Fold:
Amino acid sequence: MKKHTFLIAATLVATAACGKKAAPVEKPKAPEAKAAEAVEAPAAVSPVEAPAAATPAEDPLKNGWNLSPRGTSAKEGDRIFLLTQGKDRSHTNPAAIYQLFAHDLGEVKGDVATIKELDGSSFQVGGQYIIAAGLKAGSDVKAGDMVLAEWASSLKHAIVQKVDGDKITVRYTDLPDSWSEDKLIAVKAPKEVTKQKDGLAPGNFAVAQDDGRPVIVLLVSENGDKWLARKFSGRVATFAKAELQEIPLKPTLKAGQQVVVPYVGMMYQGKVKKVSGTRVEVAIDQGVSKAPIVSSLGQVALALPPPK
Structure:
């Protein structure tokens, strides 16, 4: 009798346990999967997926670089590139990883701009994190021009191959060199293309000094005597304007010429071996790579003359 009682009780306990659903456990992603999301599929962290709930309630002018407030030259309705760390719309953490994604600009009031989301929501940011983008009516963009061009909503660099009305054919210059040629070419609308100009300008690359080492940075906005810029690592910092070296968009290069090229974010001096279109092969002197480094126009700096 005791045996039967025990079996009945055990059955009741098991039945109760089966009737209670366990909370779903999300399987953690492997590190390589996370890296793939960040590099191979920028759309996975694009502004499209950022919910309205992610909008920060704090002052949009508060930042982690002690930047003074400043506005933007972009107007309501314009296309822009925005410095963002994904769903967190704040700019208070200088150690965070930041990307540059395309958005439509809403209302601009003083130093604060409203950014539109595709789901109808919006959030506010300071103007210093905005790169004005898109071609205006009557733009003189033509074949051979260096431009900023959207790729999966992110900022990339390209050269114009053909202009046919509102269809602009570009070839990207900073996508993986191992990709087939057809993946490097796209037809873009005028709002997705931004003509670059030589010098220290938003969207251009420049050489900066980071802890005494020359590095390549992407310029975002000028702030007094400094520039806010994004490093190869994705982290953002300010650099003294006087210490930045411009990188010409289309320098005249020839074999044997001394230049400075990026390799994993660092800048190294070397000699040009071959120039093919926008591709530049450089043998660097420091021995960090036995094979020539393949870079592109817009990232190859002219070697500075030795100090006198």
Q: What stands out?
A: Confidence is low (pLDDT under 50) at residues 1-56.
